[in-house]
Amino acid sequence: xxxxxxxxxxxxxxxxxxxxxxxxxxxxxxxxxxxxxxxxxxxxxxxxxxxxxxxxxxxxxxxxxxxxxxxxxxxxxxxxxxxxxxxxxxxxxxxxxx
Amino acid sequence: xxxxxxxxxxxxxxxxxxxxxxxxxxxxxxxxxxxxxxxxxxxxxxxxxxxxxxxxxxxxxxxxxxxxxxxxxxxxxxxxxxxxxxxxxxxxxxxxxxxxxxxxxxxxxxxxxxxxxxxxxxxxxxxxxxxxxxxxxxxxxxxxxxxxxxxxxxxxxxxxxxxxxxxxxxxxxxxxxxxxxxxxxxxxxxxxxxxxxxxxxxxxxxxxxxxxxxxxxxxxxxxxxxxxxxxxxxxxxxxxxxxxxxxxxxxxxxxxxxxxxxxxxxxxxxxxxxxxxxxxxxxxxxxxxxxxxxxxxxxxxxxxxxxxxxxxxxxxxxxxxxxxxxxxxxxxxxxxxxxxxxxxxxxxxxxxxxxxxxxxxxxxxxxxxxxxxxxxxxxxxxxxxxxxxxxxxxxxxxxxxxxxxxxxxxxxxxxxxxxxxxxxxxxxxxxxxx
Lengths: 98, 434
Ligand SMILES: Cc1cc2nc3c(=O)[nH]c(=O)nc-3n(C[C@H](O)[C@H](O)[C@H](O)COP(=O)(O)OP(=O)(O)OC[C@H]3O[C@@H](n4cnc5c(N)ncnc54)[C@H](O)[C@@H]3O)c2cc1C
Ligand code: SF4
Description:
The complex is a heterodimer of chains A (98) and B (434). In chain A, 20% of the residues lie in helices and 18% in strands. Chain A has helices spanning 9-13, 37-45, 71-76; strands at residues 17-19, 27-29, 51-53, 59-61, 82-84, 92-94. Chain A has 3 helices and 6 strands. In chain B, strands 3, 4, 5, 6, 11, 12, 13, 14 and 15 form a 9-stranded mixed beta sheet that branches. In chain B, 51% of the residues are buried. In chain B, helix 1 runs parallel beside helix 3, helix 1 packs parallel to helix 9 (317-336) and helix 13 (376-395) packs antiparallel against helix 14 (402-433). Chain B has helices at 14-25, 51-55, 106-119, 167-171, 195-202, 243-249, 253-262, 267-270, 317-336, 343-354, 357-364, 368-374, 376-395, 402-433, and strands at residues 3-10, 30-33, 48-50, 67-79, 84-90, 101-104, 123-125, 130-135, 141-146, 152-160, 183-192, 208-216, 224-230, 234-242, 274-284, 295-296, 299-301. Chain B folds into 3 domains: 4-67 and 104-178 and 289-364, FAD/NAD(P)-binding domain; 183-284, D-Amino Acid Oxidase, subunit A, domain 2 (D-Amino Acid Oxidase, Chain A, domain 2), CATH 3.30.9; 369-433, no CATH class. With 434 residues, chain B is an alpha/beta fold. Chain B contains 14 helices and 17 strands. The interface between A and B is large, with 42 and 58 residues. Bound molecules: flavin-adenine dinucleotide and iron/sulfur cluster (SF4). Flavin-adenine dinucleotide binds next to helix 1, helix 4, strand 11, strand 14 and strand 15 of chain B.
């Protein structure tokens, strides 16, 4: 529905501060063949653009830019399609203003 | 060595700080855990602070709290793609000695509030994520395990002020994860502008502030709203919609925000600003029917974690502060009687909250969340468009006789919703509002 040039999420995330915990992602997608509707929806509705399709049609998550909002947790944790935790204390997004 | 406290508070947001402050002021030993680098590092709000609820905790907060502007004007906008129809309320009465509403910046405010709790004696551990509740053989909560080495800490009672994603409570089975139609996802940006520019653009002086709330085409038919708040030298702008609507439509929240910013009524207000942050957060919007069990053996839950949020009036922080304060007062009373923190005794907190504005307000609007959801196409797209068409018909002078213009307005209304639809909608809204 919205027209005009699309904004890239990277342009927005660059304003933010993060402390990434290397090698310890706080979100993981469970193995699957075909993503469910909600899992597929995450590729457009995650506000940080963390979810994307792989070449073979599955959905993967790279949570470095995650703002820990919990939208994917609400939609996918109860069904076991993802596991979702907070990053280790002090890591993750650091809002200066919030 | 196992450390032991009268109370552990999970989280240093609005609810947690209110609870820690109140408990520590009454002389209880309090440990507060916060996963962020500092209190507020993880927290996002519009943000309007309601003074009354903070006054009940810190009466002289105006002396040193980081307040941005006091709100003297509220604008409600019904938006179509290219127009808005507005209702505006501005009053000199809001320029009172002790103003009623302020804009704040959460990250800064939370640090201040937490410092106040620490001055009263609460011990704060930041960069510490609580991982799970520790329960005894009978299921009574007796402490928490954290992600620090040797991180088990014991307490008589745990106050869960862990916010909308409250993992501790859901993992322990004390409450369910909220459903997708009970939470809204909001995205927002901080736009910096010189104070003089803000004052000129919004027709304000000194510390006066303006709030704009915008419903209609901006949410593309989803149940949701846009908002714009003036701070001292920045403007907070954002938009939030129900998560299940995002999931069903696949709408990208940041494209939605981008479109809102470019609306012809909004764009000139942001012209030339420097963006310094982009944030996202959930808002509990399930209302009264979504409120979970509030207490049990050795625990209470307060604030967003308990879905205590009034979506109709956009209030959350004041319910969070009030529930935190009431939980602390209940705990203090039980402690003073030298009684244990059993579910029976802690039910006092529920009684106190039922008697307060928190539950009374949530009860008043108990049917509103469902209505907004099932009627979102009509309420957020059709009606704003109809109002806009009526306004344009009324204002545009083009030689069409006025009688014909009025007829056109009425038949547009009828064609879009039909008489029964119109009457039905009016009755449904009136019922939910009662
Ligand atoms: C965009 C937006 C606009 C809003 N506008 C308004 C408004 O104008 N007025 C209003 O009154 N309300 C508003 N609200 C609602 C308001 O922000 C919330 O109701 C309020 O923040 C709730 O406070 P809380 O203390 O319950 O939760 P939070 O403020 O979320 O605090 C929870 C705290 O717990 C910490 N935590 C969580 N889990 C753990 C753990 N396991 N270990 C350690 N720490 C943990 C978090 O880091 C966080 O600091 C808005 C919300 C949003 C998202
Ligand atoms: S928590 Fe929010 S920002 Fe993080 S991956 Fe999930 S939806 Fe995206």
